[in-house]
């Protein structure tokens, strides 16, 4: 399979059905093996529910699993996503906080559906919930309900017309600041990494977040341009941070063209993160 030569060894940013991805953890691992990856990071939004199944499948398919999460935080109205890797799953503090965040997700979905009512769209919570197979519900599940009911053709149209930033039913509702997100990850012995900073141009916040305990920057990402990669690599070097990367794979129907393993890093980076986590 010569396409394997174009791929990275490890894709450290992947979503599963535990949150808003379309593949189960086991299906994701199987696909990772098919496309020639050696490692993947499971980074579902506000949940670690997918870890166990991924690890079991990883042992079968010889795929190394990096246990992660992605936290959405709010920086003066701007969304800042923080990845956490190799957190201590036995931490009660982490369990409680993640539960709060998932409850806030449900409240946010209800608010968005309230806005829909004003727009003449009647969708019940249950209709959204049926697309959430795991414990963390999110806007892509609303997009799926909009498609099902014929309001939009695809997920992108759902975000553009209704639920994306700037659209009429957009509700920002992130309970954490970036600093709080970083503290939560570090408190649970995890490695905190700034996700895809190029998407919303977040360089001004980085010095404060490094002070708060940030340890890495996701330099390679499906939504980063070559210039973004250059800029964030330079910043990472300046602050002596890890440079990570991943596709942000959710499944073809959710993010068309974002292929598993299309963006990533060498297995060495995965090992660096494991080393760092052991020292946290
Ligand atoms: P939530 O966690 O509920 O805020 O939803 C965030 C998720 O929605 C992201 O991880 C993406 O999967 C998806 N998303 C965000 N913006 C867009 C967009 N403009 N088009 C398609 N999907 C998007
Ligand atoms: Zn997502
Ligand atoms: Fe993100
Ligand atoms: Fe993501």
CATH H-level superfamily of the largest domain: Metal-dependent hydrolases
The number of strands is 7
Low-confidence stretches: none
Secondary-structure-derived class: alpha/beta
Report the sheet-strand fraction: 15-25%
Q: What's the mean pLDDT score?
A: 95
Which distinct ligands sit in these coordinates? Answer: adenosine monophosphate, zinc ion, fe (iii) ion
C-alpha-based Rg, rounded: 18 Å
Terminal Cα separation, in Å? 39 Å
CATH architecture of the largest domain: Alpha-Beta Barrel
CATH topology of the largest domain: TIM Barrel
- Counting DSSP H or I runs of 4 or more residues, the number of helices is 10
Oligomer state equals single chain
Order of helices and strands: EHEHEEHHHHHEHEHEH
